[in-house]
Model the fold of this input.
Amino acid sequence: MAARSSERTKAAILSAARERFAAVGYQAATIRSIAADAGIDPAMVMRYYGNKDGLFAAAAEFDLRFPDFTGVDRALLGAALVRHFLDRWEGDDALVLLLRSSTTNAEAAQRMKQIFVAQLEPMVAGLVGADAATRAGLIATQILGLALCRYVLKLPPIAAMSRADIVGWISPTVQRYLGEPM
Done:
C-alpha cells in the first residue's frame, strides 16, 4: 500500500511540475508552488527529487518515440523525420518546455543534449552508419531551430506555416544530412 501511495505522490508531483514549468518556465516555478499544485507538502518534493534541478530533470524525461524508419524509401527519409518531429513537438508540451527552459538553464540544456545524443544519434546511425554523430548534430540544428522559432518564439512566418509547407522547406536539408556522403 505504501509503495502504491508513493508512486501516486510521485506521479502527482511530476504532473504538477510539468504543468507549472510549462506555464511559467523553470526560473519562475518554485518547489512550493509545485507542491501546492500537487496538494502535498513541499518536503515531499524534496524527499523524492532532491531539489528543483532534480525535479526538472525527472519532469523533462522525454522519449522521441522514433518509429522504425528502415522501411521508408531512402529518398523520403528527410520528410518522414520532419513529420515525426512535428508530431512530437505538437503532441507533448514537455519537449517544448524543455526547449524553452534550455535557453536559460544549464540543467535543461544538458537534458536536451542527452535526449538528442542518446536517441537521435543511434537512430541516424541505424539509417546511415558513417558519420552518425555529425549527421545527427546537423539534423538537430534544423529540428531544434524550427521548434524554437515555431513553438517558443512563435516567429509569425514560421508559426503560421502549414505542416506541409514546413516539411517542404525543411526536409530537403534533413534529407541531405541523411543521404549524401560527407
Q: What stands out?
A: The mean pLDDT is 89. The chain is about 75% helix and 0% strand.
